[in-house]
Design brief:
mainly alpha; 0% strand; 21 helices; 563 residues
């Protein structure tokens, strides 16, 4: 007995411990050595090449850290629960930063900030404020706790699995998984586009190289470490985003004489095609408050129905994590989203450096940053790379896990083991990244350059389909599977019509953003209306599902006074 135990310790546990310890000790040393050697080489270069090499050096170090974390977190990715949800043991800081970094990407920093800053001026900042209050604060308060409780009770790891378990409907689960897989692809393709413009500005790098670089690096650390690797990397990337956006705003405004001088300059800008009112781009609500309101709603309320966002609530560890995470996530959104839109609001001050008619709105932010120093350019690239890779990792985990658990496992491979499920998820991550990268290349070469359009279609379809069914399913026992199906159909159907036959829609709905908002609002009406006239699930199923909210939990007196 003793000899067999010793054999197990030395043959199994010791090698694992030894190699893990060896990796932890050698990987940081190797990174530092490479960094020192390259730094010495950079100092010997001419001044013109020095800035470019320094940017490249910082980028290499950043990539090394991401991959190192991915390899270290392999121990958390051995089963489906660990790979997809981190074992439901993720603390408040990691969860809040994972939520925030998945929320904001190159789509926001390059696409939305540039486009809406140009259209609405400084009033575009309202979109960032809405993201913080509606998209973060209210989302955590209204969805966070109930999502965590019910998804654990139903043992669901994905949004389609939640619908399938909640309504005992396999067809509802399959439908949701197909919608997610299809409509997350355009969003993912938009991430590459925004990143490529900044890489091109900083390194004069070919677009295809940017796509390949981002795709391969994200695939490595996500495949290796799963959700826990993405959560830790999201935390690091979130810190970079917080610091970076503040520094960049200060640097850009400084090129225009500071905040007050820049604001005064913006007040002098006029565009008769937009508005004849003087100083309209420096005003409180801008030249088009109605369309700005639609932007705020889509980018804020829309997150309530996005599977990659809602899934963050599944992994929260405990009650204190929800309370702290709510505050952290709200502050993060206020700084990052508010900062991005605030910066974009000054885009028209750089109208002499950008040709919007020729190069599109996506060229505005890169033009604003082009004349910054090498160190700041490197910070910008790392900031947007952080935002894009964190969002990409979240999207591919949501999509691949959904397709594996909710589509393949229940319909084609019913006896799929945990090990095989994790392997399938990893394979599908590669497939999903490859498809989205290919679409990004095709989209670029066919001159469809508006990032916001791709994001609007994706967000509109997913939020229009899922927001109302998910929200009502958490709170209302009367929600029916038929109402969910109709919401799925109406949300996706409206966005497909908007994409392929926009002339059939009223003028206000021909914008993907406006159409997405209307799809969400229609869903909020359809679900309760249809539920009143369709068959409810079995009473025993409903009572057993909602019983999870009624369990007694002992809490401290500071939470509940008692008698």
């Amino acid at each position: 007995m003793r000899s067999s135990l010793l054999f197990f310790l030395f043959s199994k546990l010791f090698p694992i411990f030894f190699f893990r310890l060896l990796f932890l000790l050698t990987f940081p040393i190797l990174c530092v050595k490479v960094f020192v050697v390259l730094t010495v080489k950079v100092k010997m270069l001419p001044f013109g090449e020095k800035g470019k090499m320094m940017k490249l050096l910082i980028l290499i170090l950043y990539f090394a850290v991401l991959i190192g974390i991915g390899l270290y977190c392999r121990k958390h990715a051995t089963d489906v629960n660990g790979f997809v949800l981190g074992g439901r043991s993720v603390g408040p800081w990691l969860t809040a930063f994972a939520y925030g970094t998945s929320y904001f990407s190159a789509v926001v920093f390059v696409g939305y900030a540039g486009q809406f800053g140009w259209k609405y001026g400084i009033a575009a900042t309202w979109a960032g404020i809405g993201n913080a209050i509606i998209g973060s604060l209210l989302a955590w308060v209204i969805l966070g706790r109930r999502t965590r409780i019910m998804t654990q009770h139903l043992d669901s790891a994905t949004m389609p699995q939640f619908f399938g378990q909640r309504f005992a409907s396999p067809s509802l689960k399959v439908s949701a998984s197909v919608i997610i897989f299809i409509f997350l692809i355009p969003y993912t393709a938009s991430l590459y586009n925004g990143l490529s413009r900044l890489f091109g500005m900083a390194f004069h790098m070919d677009y295809s190289v940017c796509i390949l670089l981002m795709a391969v690096l994200t695939a490595i650390y996500v495949i290796a470490g799963g959700y826990m690797a993405t959560a830790i990397n999201d935390f690091i990337q979130g810190i970079i985003m917080l610091v970076g956006i503040v520094v960049i705003i200060a640097a850009v405004l400084n090129t225009k004489g500071g905040f007050m001088a820049a604001l005064a300059g913006l007040a002098q800008v006029s565009d008769e095609t937009v508005s004849s009112s003087p100083g309209i781009f420096a005003s409180f609500f801008g030249p088009d408050p109605l369309n700005l309101f639609f932007v705020v709603l889509l980018t804020s309320l829309g997150t309530w129905g996005l599977p990659q966002m809602v899934q963050k609530f599944y992994a929260i560890r405990d009650e204190q994590s929800i309370k702290k995470g709510t505050i952290i996530s709200t502050v993060f959104a206020l700084v990052v989203a508010g900062g991005c839109y605030f910066l974009g609001g000054f885009g028209r001050l750089f109208s002499d450096q950008v040709n919007v008619a020729k190069n599109g709105y996506d060229s505005i932010i890169p033009a604003m940053l082009e004349n910054l120093g090498p160190a700041l350019i490197a910070l910008v690239v790392i900031l947007v790379l952080s935002a894009s890779m964190s969002t990409l990792s979240s999207l591919v985990i949501a999509s691949s896990s959904t397709l594996t658990i909710d589509f393949l496992k229940d319909n084609f491979c019913k006896n799929m083991s945990e090990k095989r499920q994790v392997l399938t998820i990893r394979i599908l991550i590669v497939v999903f990244i490859a498809i989205s990268a290919a679409i990004a290349l095709i989209q670029y070469k066919s001159n469809v350059t508006f990032i916001a359009q791709l994001m609007g279609i994706s967000w509109g379809a997913l939020a229009g389909a899922f927001l109302a069914p998910f929200l009502y399913s958490l709170y209302w026992k009367g929600t029916t599977s038929a109402a969910c199906f109709i919401s799925f159909f109406s949300g996706c159907g409206l966005m497909l019509v908007n994409m392929f036959l926009p002339s059939l829609l009223p003028e206000i709905m021909r914008s993907p953003i406006n159409c997405g908002v209307i799809a969400m609002l229609i869903g909020l009406v359809i679900v309760p209306a249809v539920s009143l006239f369709t068959n409810r699930p079995a009473k025993t199923l409903i009572e057993e599902t909602f019983a999870c909210y009624d369990r007694n939990t002992v809490v401290s007196q500071k939470t509940a006074l008692g008698k």
